[in-house]
Design brief:
By secondary structure, the chain is α/β, with parallel strands linked by helices. The protein has twelve helices and nine strands.
Length: 309
């Protein structure tokens, strides 16, 4: 049996996120009895589907389960960059096309309990290979020898391959990149997976910045930087608001005073026969009151801007 190696760099990367993948493994196990063959897909390429598939398979293997990872993204596989081999390896397409036996494509790895079947040579008709009875027979045969089988499929938002594969599996999971895929696209992909009739376990939100979640979505204690700086910024904001409101009140009072002055001037300027002195006196009092209000507003504004005065 050929052997593949998962690079030390990738092993270190997986170990850093071991807690999260162990949680995913546990969630899969608690999702129902008899769920052994799990298919993973994504909405589009580049969302981390293959990395997630590899890491989940690694988590099952580390837990002591005999686990098989199948690279069924036979149109555009990236798994060849994850596992390295010193010898030529046949894969899934070679078996499905009848050119090689399945035993030639089944590889052990440098991770205990983890086995891999790579995608193999590029096929001119991948959909027909995946729809063949040979693929379904392969899955049924492998069930007998492994505790869990993780199947990495093509993005369901791009090609139909994933839906074909999911029909032969026990459950499906959708992987999507945080803040990169639109909600309606995720919903459409989810609907497509559910329409296969195979149980849909849920969505894995990948490439999520956990630092944003830790402290109120801004990454530091209190939300906006250092201890206490949030309060200082609020104070500065209130001061600016006071200044803005004070300026508005002063301006409004000034305009009112001008309008009243103009009105008083017009009324006072008319002939003595049209308006009595008493009315003139009342309008003058009203004008003085307006000026008093303006002065009071200015004082309030000055106190708000500089309370020490």
């Amino acid at each position: 049996m050929a052997k593949l190696e998962l690079s030390q760099q990738r092993l270190n990367s997986v170990k850093k996120a071991e807690e999260y993948y162990n949680a995913l493994r546990t969630n899969i196990q608690l999702s129902g009895d008899g769920l052994k063959v799990i298919a993973l897909s994504s909405v589009r390429p580049g969302e981390g589907k293959s990395t997630t598939s590899t890491n989940i398979a690694w988590a099952f293997a580390r837990a002591g389960y005999k686990t098989l990872l199948i690279d069924a993204d036979i149109r555009n596989s990236v798994m060849s960059g994850v596992f390295k081999s010193r010898e030529k390896i046949t894969g899934l397409t070679d078996y499905l096309s009848g050119t090689k036996d399945l035993s030639h494509g089944l590889c052990e790895t440098n991770v205990e309990n983890l086995f891999v079947i790579q995608s193999g040579a590029v096929s001119p008709n991948p959909t027909a290979l995946l729809q063949s009875e040979k693929f379904e027979a392969m899955i049924e045969t492998l069930r007998k020898y492994f505790d869990y089988i993780i199947v990495d499929t093509a993005p369901i938002g791009v090609v139909i391959d994933a839906a074909i594969i999911v029909q032969k599996c026990d459950a499906s999971i959708l992987v999507t990149e945080a803040s990169a895929t639109k909600r309606r696209e995720v919903q459409k992909a989810k609907d497509q997976l559910e329409q296969t009739g195979t149980p849909f376990l849920g969505v894995i939100l990948n490439k999520f910045n956990i630092q944003l979640e830790k402290y109120g979505t801004y990454g530091t204690y209190g939300g906006y930087g250092n201890y206490g700086s949030y309060g200082k910024k609020i104070s500065r904001f209130r001061e600016k608001s006071m200044e803005g409101r004070g300026f508005y009140n002063v301006t409004l009072a000034f305009i009112q005073s001008i309008l009243v002055s103009i009105l008083a001037y017009i009324l006072i300027s008319v002939s003595e026969t049209e308006i009595v002195a008493k009315k003139r006196f009342l309008f003058c009092i009203f004008f003085i009151l307006q000026l008093s209000i303006s002065v009071a507003t200015v004082r309030i504004f000055l106190n708000a801007v500089n309370p020490s005065n």
